[in-house]
Amino acid sequence: MSLSLALQALAPSYRGSRIPVIFPHYRSIFAPLQNAGIPVIFTSDGDPTLFIDDILSPHSANADGFNFEYLVSLENLVARYPHKILIGNLNSSTLARGPISAIEAELTRTIDIGKHAPRFIINVGGGLTHDIPPAHLEAYTKIRHHLCLSARK
Fold this sequence. Notes:
By secondary structure, this protein is an alpha/beta fold. The protein is 46% helix and 12% strand. It has a single domain (22-152), classed as TIM Barrel (Alpha-Beta Barrel). It has seven helices and four strands; from the N terminus they run ααβαβαβααβα.
């Protein structure tokens, strides 16, 4: 048996799955910040789809926002949590590889979905990497600016 399978077998069951037991404690961990008026924005790498509800649901951890990568369905988040602070979900490899038409398509897709969540912040998941050509960054900035202004109308 692999170590991963052994650890999963030992982990207590949480809502029918093998999610680690930290999730039930997030509400009390977040409380001092939230009680002071400081929003808690949970950040996750990879694809946290399995536990998004455990982080954002008012019946669970109730984080104020979520910072996520392109692997997470923006459509799902906007549909289920439009009132939360949602930060994402451009793929940095699209910026690196291009072409500029693909960058524009990715920005258009993201903004068209994100504009339905009033606290949405467009962001490049994983950050801006060293392999993004300056021309792609310049195009990204100009296109994003234009699309964001258009979305406000």
